[in-house]
């Protein structure tokens, strides 16, 4: 039985074939991408040397999606990433990206939490969980495990201003729901 808390171990053979150690079968990059979209962490190691190849393969998956027109990264972001490899910024960029993605995840979960608090009877939005898992996987792929080394400031406690913002968002959502219900009729 698979342990979902541990990363799925994929071994790369000398023939460059990828072997899923849990199911004892060969997998493709698309299969690995599917595991990640389903919320599973993966670790890809070279069978002979034991080298961790996870980053290399995750970047390859991202590159393949980008080449098929499934663009997530704007050209200016890709350009800045390339520049960061040739400047002193290489030490700061990983921490910045990890912190940015962490803030993005936090705001995403706060939005979902606000939606459920506003209307707990509202049915789940179709595909929301899959989208959330896919975004989390993307963020993990982009940031790797760099977030663990982030030593930035602690999160601030909620303020009255953030409560007001949440109330305003709830009001706007309620108005949108009313408009949508009028359209459905």
UniProtKB/TrEMBL annotation:
Residues 9-69 form the PHA accumulation regulator DNA-binding N-terminal domain. Residues 145-166 are annotated as: Disordered. Pfam families: PHB_acc (PF05233), PHB_acc_N (PF07879). InterPro entries: PHA_DNA-bd_N, PHA_reg_PhaR, PHB_accumulat. Residues 73-111 form the PHB accumulation regulatory domain. It comes from the Bacteria. This is Polyhydroxyalkanoate synthesis repressor PhaR. It comes from Salipiger mangrovisoli.
